[in-house]
Amino acid sequence: MNLKFYKKSYMEKYDVVVVGSGNAALCAALSARDNGAKKVLIIEKASKKEAGGNSRYTNGSYRFAYNNFSDLKKIIPKLKQSKKIDYGKYPKRSFYDDMIKVTKNKTDKKLTKTLVNDSHEVIYWLSKKGLKFVPIKGKQSFVVNGVTKYWGGLTLEVKNQGEGLIKSLTNIAKKNGIKIKYEVAAKKLIKKNNEIKGIGVLHKGKKELILCNSVILACGGFEANSKMRSKYLGNGWDKAKVRGTKHNTGDGLTMAFEHNAARYGEWNGCHAVFHDLNGPKFSDLKIAAKYRKISYPWGIVLNANGERFVDEGEDLRNYTYAKFGREVIKQPKQFAWQIFDQKVRPMLYNEYDVKSATKVKANSLEDLVKKLKGVNANKALSTILKYNQSVNTKVKFDPTIKDGKNTKGLKINKSNWANKIDKSPFYAFGVTCGITFTFGGLKINNKCEVLDNKEKPIKGLYAAGEMVGGIFYLNYPGGSGLMSGSVFGRIAGKYAAKLS
Ligand SMILES: Cc1cc2nc3c(=O)[nH]c(=O)nc-3n(C[C@H](O)[C@H](O)[C@H](O)COP(=O)(O)OP(=O)(O)OC[C@H]3O[C@@H](n4cnc5c(N)ncnc54)[C@H](O)[C@@H]3O)c2cc1C
């Protein structure tokens, strides 16, 4: 065992050590306790004030399969049925098909089947543990003909969103006897007789050793590491703004590779969105998810040349928002402006109302384009006017479905929700790329054991959450990150407990 640098200051031995204190880690730890592990320790690199990872920055929305209202009522017993509310349904088949669609069939089918098939049971498991869910009213619903209609397979979020999620799961973990230590950064996995049996850590700057029977890595991807972003995602990605925690710097991946763990999934891919142009380098918990700007389906987006570069209406926003950050990074000077008129302004998410949002407003399109900093104003005006001329006025606008209200004859047509931009005042919001999390990760088997380069499990080593590769490629259906962390965290905890 390589103890050279680590003092044996934690002489206690744990059954299971979980690295990270985000959603995947907390679910893994709870599941390990459920399955008989007596001594479970969570170690977290951040201080208590900054703990909870990206999970704490989330909207708390969870994607899961459900067949009818009764399925939702099991999760929220107080939920009332009404003719005025249509919660719809989202069968397993639809969730699976969405994963195939957005990843262009690249997702690992075994992992996706597990994600989809376990999703309902897992949300029920969480609610039984005491996590409270509420309908995502407004953000995932529109009123159509007097009925509030939920759309896009995303119906529930955790009460009080990411803050509520981490606060509740942390309290539940503590009640279940799980110990949590903050400001303890995992540095090295320790092997004995070919099994992971400990972990070397930096505790407030001091090197220490923790002994255990198994380690579950749930310490995020490498989105907050600008060097790794440049290396794996490519040129320009060092400049992306980080939407979540600054602590996900790829440590778990690096540690696992020292033991020949296999690299898996889309290492040059990530979840990235339109994000406030003047947002900070790393996000802050005050504004958190509200730096994103994802109501673009109701308008158009122009780059510095004054040209459109995506089909803003390609699909419901849940199925396009996570890939458009990649598109903006390819544009000249890596920024864009989203353009809206007064007709759709009330439909924009409340993230557009944040005081610090980069925005301009004008009473005419001529004046608006002059205010778009860094943009070719003449070209921008001509793009908007051509777009207006090409709008199909025969189809009725319906934001709850792909309405087919499109444009015709443009280089890049808008496939749905193409309304003319013609009612003043006009609004524009400056955006750039905000990275959410990286898609490349470790290869795991059906017990969430980490596999090595020869596809053999590394005994005693498990992974969950953002660290698992092979699930998301190219794109991502909103709300699946938390579900993935919970599903694979629960499995990892179950099998890690068996080694105790
Ligand atoms: C702004 C924003 C909004 C989002 N909204 C949603 C949403 O509504 N729904 C959804 O499904 N997904 C959402 N996501 C994606 C979601 O956050 C992630 O998919 C999910 O939270 C990842 O969980 P995790 O437990 O794997 O990682 P994290 O929650 O990031 O946890 C990883 C933890 O590991 C810690 N850590 C890192 N290195 C070490 C180390 N060496 N030692 C110890 N600890 C370490 C970190 O400090 C962190 O606490 C959002 C993401 C962001 C950034």
Q: What can you tell me about this protein's structure?
A:
This protein is α/β, with parallel strands linked by helices and 500 residues long. The protein has two domains: 7-222 and 439-497, FAD/NAD(P)-binding domain; 272-435, Alpha-Beta Complex (Flavocytochrome C3, Chain A, domain 1). It contains eleven helices and 22 strands. It has helices spanning 23-34, 69-75, 92-102, 109-129, 161-175, 226-233, 251-257, 321-329, 365-370, 377-390, 480-497, and strands at 7-19, 40-43, 61-62, 85-86, 133-135, 141-144, 147-150, 156-158, 179-181, 184-192, 195-203, 206-217, 241-242, 263-264, 270-276, 300-302, 336-341, 359-362, 426-438, 441-442, 449-451, 457-463. A hairpin with a 2-residue loop joins strand 11 and strand 12. The chain starts with 6 loop residues before the first strand and ends with a helix. Flavin-adenine dinucleotide binds at residues 19-25, 43-46, 51-55, 57-61, 185-186, 218-220, 243-245, 247-248, 251, 288-289, 436-437, 465-466, 479-482, 485.
